[in-house]
Please model this.
Amino acid sequence: MTDASNAAPLREKKSLLVVDARTKKRNAAEARFKMYGIIAITLGLLFLAVLLTTIISRGTGAFTQTFISVPVELREDKLDKKGNRNLEDIKKVSTFGYNPLLGDALSAVIAEGGFTTEITKSKELRKLLSSSAVGQMRAYVIENTDQIGQTVTFDFFASSRVDGYIKGRVTREDLARDKNLSAEHLDLVDQMIEAGVVRKKFNPSFIFGADASESRPEQAGLGVSMLGSLFMMLVVLFLALPIGVAASIYLEEFAPKNRLTDLIEVNISNLAAVPSIVFGILGLAFFIQFCGGYLGIAAMKASAPLVGGLVLTLMTLPTIIISTRAALKAVPPSIRDAALGVGASKMQTVFHHVLPLAAPGILTGTIIGLAQALGETAPLLLIGMVGYIASNYPDSVLSGFTDPNSAMPAQIFEWAKRADPAFYERAWGGIIILLVFLMTMNIIAILLRRRFERRW
Amino acid sequence: MSGIVLLLIVLGLGALAFILARGKALSSVGGDQRALHSRPHYYGFSASILTIAPAVALMVVWGFGQSTLVQSSVAELIPASAIAEGQTVGLLMGDVQRIANGLDTAVAEGALSSDAAATLSTGADDIRGILGSVGVALGADVDPAILKAAQSYRAMQSSGATLRMIAVIGVALLGLTYGFMQTSATYRARNSVERSMRWTLIAAASVAVFTTLGIVFSVIFNTIEFFQLYPAKDFFLSLTWSPSFGGGSELGVFPLLWGTLYISLIALMVAVPTGLFSAIYLSEYASPKVRAFAKPLLEVLAGIPTIVYGLFALLTVGPLLVNVFGDGGILGVNWMQGGTAVMTAGLVMGIMLIPFVSSLSDDIINAVPQALRDGSLGLGATPSETIRQVVIPAALPGIVGAILLAASRAIGETMIVVLGAGAAARLSMNPFDAMTTVTAKIVSQLTGDADFASPEALVAFALAMTLFVITLGLNVIALGIVRKYREQYE
Model:
């Protein structure tokens, strides 16, 4: 004590309001520390902003496409030599037979518009158009045989180079090394734009159409793979929801505390963290090799949405179980006690009272699980959904589950792998569609939670 | 197809059982429900379960048994002379199945009569042409022994299917009868139904266990097969990865592990500071308004599918980095040859992991009792001193767990590295070099054109096993730490 009283006078006398050097240092450290936090959050939000602006700025182009409207005379002497409109005879004319008609029609467009160009060869002129143009004509003629002999105006896709030129992706310098198009073509395109023959407009076939081969990016669409995703999500919904809910009910309401329960719990939390690619391995080895190959179940084959759905079901289960258990836990015990008190069995208590009260929470968790499954790509790579060109719509609902198909994220990956940069634009566009789906699902989940959330 | 029909028949019988048993229960008490032990529909369900459950179980077991039996007896039919050099019975069985399925299709489409399909012979008929006309393409002409095997395969399968139909319907009818017989006013139907329901719930809960088992088995069997073709010592210790599909590949896992760890390290260097400081700011400093705004937005990053990040790495971040660090770039250093590199994948993966680290740490920091903070602040510490010297040390085990979980995520991430990291397996220190990872190689080895039985394809399973073991280990440790930490403050 004496030491303390001796030391006291040594202390500098000074107002508390005057900040000394050490306090300054501490305050500066405080401000710095707070700054780090703000920087970190800003950085995170900045990344988000950059990501979203990149997606939108690079992807919106995919929704519009350049079209060239060309009046084509469907000459009878080429398409139906016998003149009796026999469908079989008309079908015999391959797309090759339509080429001259298209060339002539393009020459006519040039002559009529008074465009000046060095290009005269039909083959060179046709390079302005997508190679799907003749197929489009043929399909039209087979559909409308009465139009043979008439002049019909078609809206053809411009070739992907022309489209790229109009969207600013392809420049004249690029074409010096490109066999597919030359600068003269672009001069012609410039004149055609002025005359209104070439127009950029909304392209619904990107959203609803089928994928096309590597050489026709302008024709590729996401529609078929969207169906593939839809069928997979149906499988996930109809398997993961009941299994997940049943598992959660058991673990939350019935399970005794024993070894088996512990094992199941540990398994569920571990499965939630297993890399998704490992589920792909499971799909390949168990569903495709064992069930499809060894047991000979025909529906279990590579690229089938059924297999994809099964794999995604196993992946989604932990998510659904975890959220369902939380929802069940939130129902107060008084509800259970009341039901048991009036003579309901344990099972009746759970199914008649607890489950309906937990339903909104379960639904929210399920939608979020589905959204996760919808965006998952890695396991689909291994079960063969990438590399499959989804160019045909499934014939029926049943074959939608078993016929090879692609899925939205797999289709996007497939486009990202292709060499032609025109596909990159479509990949970004596909991402916009995918994100719109995910956003809608999440918003529905949030609204459901807001609308039905109960505080006990 | 016959399976689905059979299932529908069984379900129909189940519905019939429900109606009959419910009716019998009601009529036995003259319509006075109070005299029954259980409510009437429980009697129906009880009989229904007795009808459906054993029949469906038999169907499944029969399916397994029949394919095993048929496969082995058909395999015996293939003479040793028909097995060419470099082929196995397994591969020929694939041909047999393909031809048998092709014949089925041909019969279904009317290209063949069912008698003709059973008596075709390679000499007289153009099998390839017939099957080709119904869309089943065969690589080569059909060996007579294979055709014979395929025909007997079809015969056995169809007689098996008939037998199965009889047996399954028989069991269902037996169940129906028994269920109907035991229905009486005193029968405890509700208890029996609830017992079955309980077993169903247990079965659903065990799906998680079976999934894990399925993963382990599908990886292990193929890995063992791989190690029979390729020495395990070389796989784990060799420093070269150069698969060549002609044979003579060197399949050392080390360069892949190096790439994986390097990319994960960069990702964690981005994600951990950013995520941790975000979590600290959000939980300790931010006003409720800022929190309500920033937290969901950060979590949007977690909801974006990985394919989007992969594309972002490939098409945006890669070219950007080349512009800075590449040949003729802003810095004038020529470190980076192409857009795909460890740095590209690492940075983007780091962005992906930010919300993961921040939301986990946020939970953990919030779990630190307020009393600790109050004590520290009361002694005159500034908020930052409180956080650094009290909150973080208290939360440290949990934060370490969160970081380990993030590391496990990074190691198992596939799409970003497939698109952003490159394909060359090399051991290099330069973060701007292209390297490849375990996950990327699993994809490339299994999606190539390699023969499925070759070591080049099977190595993917050994890689998957390595990956599974590493991530499982990390997860178990991390979850253990997190759980222990939670208990500490509960």
User: Anything to note?
Assistant: The CA atoms of residues 125 and 335 of chain A lie 77 Å apart. Chain A is about 65% helix and 5% strand. Residues 21-59 of chain A form the longest helix (39 residues). Chain A has a mean pLDDT of 86.
